[in-house]
Amino acid sequence: MKNLAIIGGGSWGTALANVLAPRFPRVALWVYETDLAARMSDTRENDVYLPGIQLPNHVVVTRDLATALDGAQVVLSVMPSHLARGIYQQMLPFLNESMVFVSATKGLENGTLLRISEVIQEVLHASFDARVAVISGPTFAKEVACFEPTALVVAAPDEVLPSAIQAAFSGPSFRLYTSTDPIGVEIGGSIKNVVAIGSGVLNGMGLGHNVTAALITRGLAEMNRLALAMGGKPQTLAGLAGLGDLVLTCTGDLSRNRAVGVALAHGRKLDEIVSSMKMVAEGIKTTNAAVDLAKRYGVEMPISEQMFQMLHFGVSPREAIQRLMERSLKGE
Predict the structure, then answer these.
(1) 26-30: strand order across its sheet
(2) Beta strand residue intervals within 140-272, DSSP E
(3) How far apart are CA 23 and CA 167, in angstroms?
(4) What are the catalytic residues?
(5) Cα–Cα distances in Å, from 17 out to 2, 43, 44, 119, 262?
(6) Residues of the chain below pLDDT 70
(7) pLDDT at residue 332, rounded to an integer
């Protein structure tokens, strides 16, 4: 695995380009915005999504998919979940079965309710059977880009592919653990964003640590129930891609989803919040898929349900909390 193509030039894609550059002779970073791609090529800095981080000289920044994918052995996709299908359809003419695909997107596709690795396989299946892995874990892009110690999980149904990605990606500050449970890894990486919006609401309302700890714990229970119903493994949700990422996103000041919850608690409208954000907060769209998946698999996800009601039907943060606290009593 000598050549790496990273598809998506937001903060996470840029951070991955920076931390993985020492591991690959050639790294191509595809950036959607033409003007940003040109500036990044000149200045070596993503001044919109990750200012202050200098990309290594051998990272090729491009707006052209053919250039990005030319000669790539590994395709690492980091686009927002709602764009994954369309971008992979555009990429299809430049892809082949010798490539390995890794999804770093933390979200689900609304409507189909597919995990993003399933979206990739569905698009590519028309041409070939793709080898797809997923990576997830407690990762703020800025800290990764600054080479602060980071641990995450790489998962695929077989043991061979995660081990190969682990060997290719791991370095002094970037440690990967392997898993054969992509379902648990992707569900954990998606649903934690929904719970993090709730954590932001609590913080914005000035509530204390008791309720935040309760929300994180019961949010983990929801993630676990859904993942198990879909065929995931309980130990996955107790690990980096579940509990680890959940704690980070619910408590860290760099969390976009938590920031959405804080803004909602301060009385701002969702449309206003979204229009003011440079980057995508995946939890907003994931609430829809979470509620639909809960219905499909017959599992209770009351926190996700109240986040959905708050985001899309105007339920106030205080009322959402009251609904959760006044649910019928039951065992843990």
Answers:
(1) 59-62, 26-30, 3-7, 74-77, 100-103, 131-136, 150-155, 174-179
(2) 150-155, 174-179
(3) 10
(4) 192
(5) 14, 15, 11, 23, 30
(6) none
(7) 86
Tokens (6 digits) for 5: 């193509």
The CA-atom distances, in angstroms, between 204 and each of 146, 180, 258, 267, 289 are: 29, 38, 9, 10, 25
| Phi, psi for 122 (deg, rounded to 5) | -65, -45
Chain centroid to Cα 64, Å, comes to 24
Residue 7 φ then ψ, to 5°: -105, 100
Report the distance separating Cα 192 and Cα 279, nearest Å: 17
- How far CA 84 is from CA of 46, 115, 222, 288, in Å, comes to 21, 10, 25, 17
Contacts of 18 (CB under 8 A, 6+ apart): 53, 55, 56, 59, 144, 145
pLDDT of 119 reads 98
CA pair distance 9, 283, nearest whole angstrom: 20
**Residue 193: both structure tokens together:** 């964003």
pTM exceeding 0.85: yes
pLDDT for the residue 2: 85
Please give the sequence-ordered ranges of beta strands (E in DSSP) within the chain, or none if there are none: 3-7, 26-30, 45-46, 50-54, 59-62, 74-77, 100-103, 131-136, 150-155, 174-179
Residues in the chain: 332
Q: Residue 56: which of 85, 86, 17 has the closest Cα?
A: 17
The pLDDT value given to residue 283: 86
